[in-house]
Amino acid sequence: MGYRDAVPETSALPDLTGLIKAYDVRGTVPDQLNADVARAIGAAFADVVVLPEAADGARPRVVIGNDMRPSGPELVGAFAEGLAARGVDVITIGLCSTDGLYFASGKLGIPGAMFTASHNPAEYNGIKLCRAGARPVGQDSGLSRVRDLAAEYLRDGVPTPAEGAATGEVTEQDLLGDYASFLRGLVDLSGIRPLKVVVDAGNGMGGFTAPAVLGTDAGLPALPLEVVPLYFELDGTFPNHEANPLEPENLRDLQKAVVEHGADIGLAFDGDADRCFVVDENGDPVSPSAITALVGLREIEREKAEGRTPTVIHNLITSMVVPDLVTAAGARAVRTRVGHSFIKAQMAESDAVFGGEHSAHYYFRDFFFADTGMLAALHVLAALGGQPHPLSALAEQYQPYVASGEINSRVTDVAAARARVVEAYVEQQGAGPVTVDELDGLTVSHWDGHPQWWFNLRASNTEPLLRLNVEAADEDIMEKVRDDVLALVRQEGEA
């Protein structure tokens, strides 16, 4: 039986354009995302992605997981109903991190759906969709068609399978142990020196995955790690701090705990535990660009040892240290736009061994070209524990330059603000010879001259914001470039 007898009133139909975005589904519960919407999206996902890719004669299948948000189980159930109504079998794996869902999609070779809103506040939830093998589904690779079809199913009801075709079955499977074993098999920590590690899960899924991967909860042998847990209790209301370590205030508890416990390292995960941030023994953050360089060099060494020419991907906001060190190590550095769909596409196209972003997303060919914060953490622990020096000394070589971090300016006229910057730095060439590209926003570089600096100015896709990132060889130059560009951007006053 279909759902045509349970169609919501047309006037009450939600607008999916604000819910289904460029890369994922994300909105507030229940006004934007509820059981009816999830059911329609599930059926549309079946028709747009799952059924067309199913092998001839094989039962189409999808794997679904969810984070700790209270709305997750109901939304997963409704999404599964939508899939089953279209003849798709569903495997639910329950609580998992986003990279745990990617693992399931890769291991099982089937499309997947992860119910999470990452670091967003408690009233939000969302869905990250992927094709078989954890390949992303974005606006240009099926998500816009899923949105349009889901809107149709919301209006008219989800149709039943073709005559004679069976509805799908929903079963459960536990893959946490397999996920932990898989990651441990990629990085050997058994021979490192003992390390004390503080892990801040932010009440997110890191509290579920860290005990399995770094500890013995999944039945794996103990590692030479003493893990000090912070906020491991799964709580989608985030009672201690936002599960977004990109914001400095959300690292303060971890920084304090690392120093108080005399720990060697601190790790912080975001809500769905696909990003990992690192703090050294002094409580100082290690930049994601430094982690990209550190892990990238490890993967380059392994790739070269196997007789291959390595490729490492980095987005255009990462530090210049990344391409500098990658090319010096005999590998190819490929620069991409910001955003996981671009990185993943470029990773697959280039057969890259590793990729990193300034936002602490780390991508591995050995992990289905997908991002996993936990695997990046294992690499950092292996590098730290494989030599005698503290993390601050180890990280120093990967942080030679000074960065501003991302600075947002709310402006009344984005185009006019950008034009002022172009006139000052490009048309007048007042700063001396510069190179300019528009791969993602406006990047102006004086890196081949003296003093060395570059900046990128990108417009937000959803707000009247300009995002500025500046890097230079020293603090004074970074501050001057930062302040000069911001003065141009904000010349007409902020909105």
Automatic annotation (TrEMBL):
Residues 406-487 form the Alpha-D-phosphohexomutase C-terminal domain. Coiled coil: none annotated. Its cofactor is Mg(2+). Residues 20-140, 179-283, 291-401 form the Alpha-D-phosphohexomutase alpha/beta/alpha domain. CDD domains: PMM_PGM. PANTHER family: PHOSPHOMANNOMUTASE. Belongs to the phosphohexose mutase family. NCBIfam families: PRK09542.1 (NF007088). This is Phosphomannomutase/phosphoglucomutase. The gene is manB.
